[in-house]
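New to this. Look over this protein:
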Amino acid sequence: MMVKSKMVNVMDLPEEELIYPGTRACAGCAMALIYRIALKALGPKTISTVPASCLTVLHGMQGFCSTKISVLHTPFATTAASASGIVASLEEKGLAEDICVIAFAGDGGTTDIGIQSLSGAVERGTNFIYACYDNEAYMNTGVQRSGSTPLGAKTTTTPFGKIGHKKNMPKILEAHDIPYVATANASYPFDLYEKFQKARKIQGPKYIHILAPCPPGWGYDPKHTIKIGRLANETGFWPLYEVIDGKFKLSQKSKKYLDPNKRKPIEEYLEVQNRFDRITPNEIKLYKDYIEKIWNDIKKRMN
């Protein structure tokens, strides 16, 4: 089902905050911004399920919770299975239409440890939203490499830089033939808000994969989080798009980058992050080829 939406502006965002002030997230944490905007879009009638992750830290110590919504913490591998159980319980009680269920996990809990339960949940047609905030490593446990870590990035388990590009998780979810898949970016909160609102109205499994810059894990000053997220889009590395019932739609913030002359050099994105300080000229060339391939594929899908 195609869901139409108008362009979101600041006046559309609800004033009510569903996250209490003073969380335990790091300064400049993009994940905290993503969660705040997502909950504004979904509203107070939302249940969130979260695996071991930075978001667990944001929620607080045992016995406390930094949100006004109900949150179920679950083991690393079981986020989508946990969401399936919540949905089944709500359906049994006749509450499923009123309450939104969202599974919120990092890239480790999505592309690696949680991929089996996620695949199973969407294959069963579970009516929930799964959001991956992608900070491109296992940040909560000390910056270990994940399947979403990009080429050349240093982590504690790839001290000389990761070999190979990141896993394309949105395409993997597309292959499951679900009604809604989208990419988003913490640096574009209105686009993010609109996509969560849209997903809320669609029946069936929905998947949103969101780039979440991480100051300690990526190695930059916390004040540059928004700038670095925008550079990912402006260099063409992280295009924003939606796939609704199989139909591809490039998001407004990425449309002009169909023209390669309007993209910034990928070096501008890489050089401001300490995790790329060992990157080689050959790897930079591989990045340029990778970005070119991404956009050639996008052009084919738009024809």
About this structure: Residues 40 and 265 are 34 Å apart (CA to CA). The chain is about 35% helix and 15% strand. The chain has a mean pLDDT of 96. The beta strands are 46-50, 70-73, 100-106, 129-134, 180-185, 206-211, 241-244, 247-250.
